[in-house]
Amino acid sequence: MHRTFVVARRVLNQLRRDRRFLAFSVLAPLLIIYFFKIFFDTMPQGFNTARYVVPIAAFMVHFLAFLLCAIVLVQERTAGTLERMFINGFRRVEIISGYILGYTALATLQAIAVLSETLLLFGLDYSWETILGLFVVIWLLALTSVLLGILVSTFARHEGQVLPFIPLITLPSVFLSGLIVDTDHLPTWGAWLGHAFPLFYANRMIQRITNVQQSYSIWVNAVILMGYGGAILLLASRTLRDVE
């Protein structure tokens, strides 16, 4: 357990020293959310903005947490950091757990910043219970995204090899998770394929929290999302074996 915190502390110290990376990680999603505000302001009166803005905010955290974590971990491998950890006796579970703790702290900061800006910019008047529920959903999605980034990093030998995973993992979820169009309007194969993406379950929970008329079960989708993250963690721990 001590070595896990050693790895997590190293990640946090690295983030603190690289201020440009830290600023980009937090400011980039805020800027994109602002652009979405300009876009939604052009929509006709009566357009249900609240239906889309929080899921889009969740996707921004999901996308950046996945991408940044994957790229940084590949850089760690190419720099020989992971190899030195193994030489010094660190176990796979300690390394992965340490990275999860470190980058989850960054994802938590992203979730707080993005959700706060979304609520303020779009004037969403939710109760504190609803806001807390939305934060928990975005945080769970961010944690799953960190795990996805760790898993993808085990298959990439340099930063460029991370890029093909972006259209394969994150972009299809925009169209198949119910973020833009309800999955009931998709072809049967598309609706089923949407279940393969963590954003699908996060979006369902967000729609249920913000709209009590929705029939989605928050707890069922939360359990599935956590199980999704657990399965990715298991895969990442097994694929990291090749690095040893």
Describe the structure.
The longest helix is centred in the middle third of the chain and has 30 residues, at 92-121. The protein starts with a helix and ends in a 5-residue tail after the last helix. It contains 10 helices and no strands. The radius of gyration is 18 Å and the shape is globular. With 244 residues, it is an all-alpha fold. The protein is 75% helix and 0% strand.
Uncertain residue segments:
none
Sheet with the most strands, sense and barrel status: none
Which structural category do the helix and sheet elements fall into?
mainly alpha
Strand content: under 5%
Return the domain count: 1
Q: How much helicity do the residues have?
A: over 70%
- Count up the helices: 10
Element order: H for helix, E for strand: HHHHHHHHHH
Distance between the termini: 20 Å
Mean of pLDDT:
84
C-alpha-based Rg, rounded: 18 Å
Count of extended strands:
0
Shape estimate: globular
Sum this structure up briefly:
With 244 residues, the chain is mainly alpha-helical.
SSE blueprint and pairings:
Blueprint: H1 2-17, H2 19-40, H3 50-78, H4 81-87, H5 92-121, H6 128-153, H7 165-176, H8 188-194, H9 198-210, H10 218-239
Helix pairs in contact: 1-5, 2-3, 2-5, 3-5, 3-6, 3-9, 5-6, 6-9, 6-10, 7-8, 9-10
